[in-house]
Design goal:
Blueprint: H1 5-25, H2 30-41, H3 53-73, H4 76-81, H5 83-108, H6 114-124, H7 129-138, H8 145-167, H9 176-207, H10 212-232, H11 237-248, H12 254-277, H13 285-312, H14 316-326, H15 332-343, H16 349-371, H17 373-386, E1 408-411, H18 415-427, E2 435-439, H19 442-450, E3 454-457, H20 463-469, E4 476-478, H21 491-501, E5 506-510, H22 516-522, E6 527-529, H23 531-547, H24 551-562
Parallel strand pairs: 1-2, 1-4, 2-3, 4-5, 5-6
Length: 570
């Protein structure tokens, strides 16, 4: 039966919603629901939709919008601050992964030639930007060090694929010129985008700033203009959309654009994942065998090309394992690459089918892996230690500090703790020698130690870390992290664990929900901080200032407090 595009889109959305509700009931990731929905209604399932192309074009809009918003939310300063870790790891992962993958696929298969094995190796070296970023965004891990390293590697992977596609037509007879042309196109894209965003967009956006609709339409126009220009140059549309978002991220209208585009993006991204589910073939024993081989090669190349490099750079077990886990799946661009190879006669239909099935298998598996990466790290880290792979010094403070003076423990270090340390430095500097911070972010550890603050590298949810850090001798223990930020624990669980190690300390914990406070007090908390109450009090003061025509003075007071602040986490 021939369906119109509207009917096909409606079928996709209904199927995604029905399977999504089921996954929600059984507590499975929504991403899996969308892939399953696509398989069920697609040409390999119940055949409600037999022509995937009818939905593909619409779904690609969602991919462009998603990457545009990723660019809007990127902090280039932080990305550049992690530049060495990103650049070195990405180069080793890409070229090491391609080299090792080529050797393994040439030896094992399923490619029939060394050229087809090269296509498979390049495909296996690429990870899915869409899947990873969506999951990290949902977990609020995009701005963590591991998240920034992961996204940075993904960006360089995409650049590599673009360059590979530029030389792909000449693989049977390699030449230098296509590679130089590809580099020139990337440079032209970046140059034009930067020039327009620097000199043309600011006055235009300033002109329409009082019209929110025009700001939104202007931002979308900029996104699709750059995507179209990239496509015109023969580059990836997604790269153009990502670049458009990055260059717009410094504008004062970013938050408003993100808020308005989110709902539009979610609709199109749902279609994107449903469309991906449609390419999943019906499993056969041949597919299953080679899918497992391909998946094993991909995971092996991630492990040997990511973890050792980050360990060598001194980032410790956690920051080395998490990016490798995050990157353990196949990119959508890999399927595009293999399809192009098929058009050139270099790749067989069987190889593409095997890879498509591996894509689905790894998408599901890596989804669980990313959502549970903290638990995986906790299980693997002790084995690495037994094998003689050193972690950052866990449970030991910075040399030169008297452990007996560190009576105020800060468990975990994020925004609130950063502001607290700044206030202590300004108002109560005599407290600084008494502070001891426990955190597992190497960047945070280095910055705090540079300020002369005692830091212990470790996971606050681990009892051994707390014991070795000397939590039993603490006078005051502070945890300012919310339950959504604590990985593998909650404030209640952490409180009970700390109280069992120290019965006399004053323990201050965080509560997002007001009805959590009584439970925390009953478990032994000395004081429960509820940020919403503090914000409500401040908002009431602002409303009073407005009523008394003192808002200008209130603003000046806040600006004075913000002036010259130099926090560990801005």
């Amino acid at each position: 039966m021939d369906h119109g595009i509207v009917t096909d889109i409606a079928t996709c959305i209904i199927a995604a919603w029905v399977v999504g509700v089921v996954c929600r009931v059984v507590r499975q990731p929504l991403l899996i629901a969308y892939l399953v929905a696509g398989f069920v209604i697609g040409p390999h399932g119940l055949r409600f939709i037999t022509d995937r192309e009818s939905v593909q074009t619409i779904s690609e809009i969602g991919l462009a919008l998603l990457l545009f918003m990723i660019g809007l939310e990127m902090d280039l300063k932080k990305m550049l601050g992690s530049g060495k870790a990103i650049t070195v790891t990405a180069l080793v992962q890409i070229f090491g992964g391609v080299g090792l993958g080529w050797l393994l696929f040439s030896w094992l298969g399923p490619g029939a030639s060394k050229l087809e094995a090269l296509y498979l190796a390049v495909a296996a070296a690429m990870s899915s930007t869409v899947i990873i970023v969506k999951l990290l965004h949902d977990k609020r891990e995009l701005e963590t060090l591991a998240g920034r390293i992961t996204v940075g590697i993904l960006v360089l992977q995409d650049v590599f694929v673009i360059l590979f596609l530029a030389v792909q037509p000449n693989l049977k007879d390699p030449a230098f010129t296509p590679l130089a042309v590809a580099f020139g196109k990337v440079a032209l894209l970046v140059g034009v985008a930067y020039t327009v965003s620097r000199f043309v967009l600011p006055p235009v956006f300033k002109l329409v700033a009082r019209q929110p609709e025009l700001v939104l339409v202007g931002a979308l126009a900029w996104c699709f203009a750059m995507a179209g220009f990239a496509s015109y140059l023969g580059l990836s549309r997604e790269m153009g959309a990502l670049l458009a978002g990055v260059l717009l991220s410094t504008f004062p209208y970013t938050l408003d654009v993100v808020a308005k585009v989110t709902s539009i993006r979610d609709f199109f991204v749902t279609l994107f994942f449903v469309a991906l589910g449609m390419i999943i073939p019906m499993p056969t024993w041949d597919y299953l065998l080679w899918m497992l081989v391909f998946s094993a090669v991909l995971i092996i190349t991630r492990v040997v090309s990511v973890i050792p490099v980050l360990l060598k750079l001194g980032l410790g077990h956690r920051m080395s394992l998490v990016p490798a886990i995050n990157l353990s799946q196949l990119s959508e661009l890999a399927l595009v690459l293999l399809a192009i190879g098929k058009g050139s006669g270099d790749v067989s239909e069987r190889t593409i089918s095997i890879t498509a099935f591996a894509f689905a298998f790894l998408a599901v598996g890596s989804t669980y892996g990313i959502l549970r990466n903290d638990g995986i790290v906790r299980r693997v880290s002790p084995w690495l230690a037994k094998l003689g792979v050193p972690d950052l010094p866990e449970g030991s403070a910075e040399a030169g500090h008297d452990h007996s003076g560190g009576t105020i423990f800060v468990l975990g270090f994020l925004w609130t703790a950063s502001s607290m340390v700044e206030e202590i430095e300004r108002e109560r500097p005599t407290l600084l020698p008494r502070l001891r911070v426990i955190d597992f972010n190497p960047e945070t550890v280095a910055k705090l130690r540079a300020r002369g603050i005692t830091v212990i590298y470790g996971d606050v949810s681990q009892r051994d870390v707390l014991e070795h850090a000397g939590i039993g001798d603490a006078e005051v223990i502070v945890c300012s992290l919310s339950d959504s930020v604590l990985r593998g624990s909650t404030n209640l669980r952490l409180l009970r664990q700390v109280r069992s190690l120290n019965e006399r300390a004053e323990i201050i914990v965080h509560a997002e929900r007001l009805d959590d406070a009584s439970t925390l007090y009953a478990a032994g908390a000395s004081y429960v901080v509820s940020p919403r109450l503090l914000e409500a009090r401040e908002l009431l003061e602002v409303l009073d200032a407005v009523d008394n025509h003192l808002i200008a003075e209130k603003t000046c007071e806040q600006l004075a407090r913000l002036e010259n602040r130099s926090e560990v986490i801005p």
